[in-house]
Amino acid sequence: MIVCEFRPGLEDIPAAQSSISDVDGHKGILEYRGIRIEELAENSTFLETAYLLIWGALPTADQLTSFEQEVREHRRIKYRIRDMMKCFPESGHPMDALQASAAALGLFYSRRDLHNPIYIRDAVVRLLANIPTMVAAFQLMRKGNDPVPPHDELDYSGNFLYMLNEKQPDPLAARIFDVCLILHAEHTMNASTFSARVTASTLTDPYAVVASAVGTLGGPLHGGANEEVIQMLEEIGSVKNVVPYIEDCLQRKAKIMGFGHRVYKVKDPRATILQNLAEQLFAKFGHDKYYDIAQEIERVVEEKLGGKGIYPNVDFYSGLVYRKLGIPTDLFTPVFAIARVAGWLAHWKEQLAENRIFRPTQVYNGHHNLPYKPIEQR
Ligand code: SDX
Fold this sequence. Notes:
The protein is mainly alpha-helical. The protein has helices at residues 37-43, 46-55, 61-73, 79-86, 94-109, 117-142, 156-165, 171-184, 191-200, 206-217, 225-236, 242-251, 269-285, 289-305, 314-324, 332-354; strands spanning 21-24, 29-32, 35-36.
């Protein structure tokens, strides 16, 4: 029995009931558990926001302190996982390395005690704590260096930048990175979160849920766009080349990376906040000519496609912030994954409570009752 017509990409089809986040795509509003993203970016930290998303309310001071301490204590990854990562090819994409490493956590911790709150908290803490260490470790190992052990004195974001760049980060850089993680933590029923929920609905372990979501996030139409935006800026090379480049894209009906969104038909509020963060970094650490190119692209695309609701999304300015923080381009999407683990875990818990396996239907448009044709007659 089919209750609604087929919609490619499930456009506008509710796939779950959720209280984790909400987006008003016409007003450009994003809320996590009812709190506006601008409020959280201004006042919160990534771990506090992760707690809010996963457990449904802002933590008390004691709850936050113990949560931060538990994550700090679990930052180190098992030597056997590190040794496994040493076998990965240096030329491999860090998102593939992350997907394999996240899945490997399941070999050590899965147990699948899904109704035990202690198991659930352990999985949440371990995944939030281990994923950044894995990303940084892969980066150092592919450069031929030994991974740097976590720095117990630094907070979540400061420690990641320390493990990645092998030096203590500037406090402003660490704070701006933490805000980037807040902005990327959750976004209703995006493709990777949907993937996480489908995987969670089979009652598999949370490590498989995150590995499934990482694989989905890596595509250029989803989390992989931030890397493509920088490649586009480098290809354009100067402000005067923007108009011909964009006109050529439109001529070829090619998608302009970092623009457009299934839900937002105005500028993504996260893009606006990221622009402000980029300007703070440029003021302190020096300007980036690619920012001028990016602003010209935004002006031209708004002129030509604004009428169709095509505006910058979260991926358009994030790469400029990450470049200034010394993060290599092909780590932009793994950084997106570090943040989105919080949202995926929140949806994992919500899906467990829903307790119903995803099994949609289809509109069949193939043949019926065809005879089997022997191979010699084909
Ligand atoms: C993220 O879902 C989420 O919430 C995702 C995310 C999150 O936080 O999880 O917000 C993160 O994934 C952001 C999106 C990053 N991807 C990109 O920047 C890649 C470029 N963007 C497009 O591929 C596209 O806009 C999507 C995939 C993001 C949305 O695609 P839709 O909703 O399926 O839109 P569509 O492809 O059906 O396009 C509708 C029209 C088409 O024109 P017509 O055929 O109707 O004439 O809009 C045009 C498209 O050609 N269009 C674009 C465009 N995006 C849509 N034209 C030029 N450049 C673009 N980027």
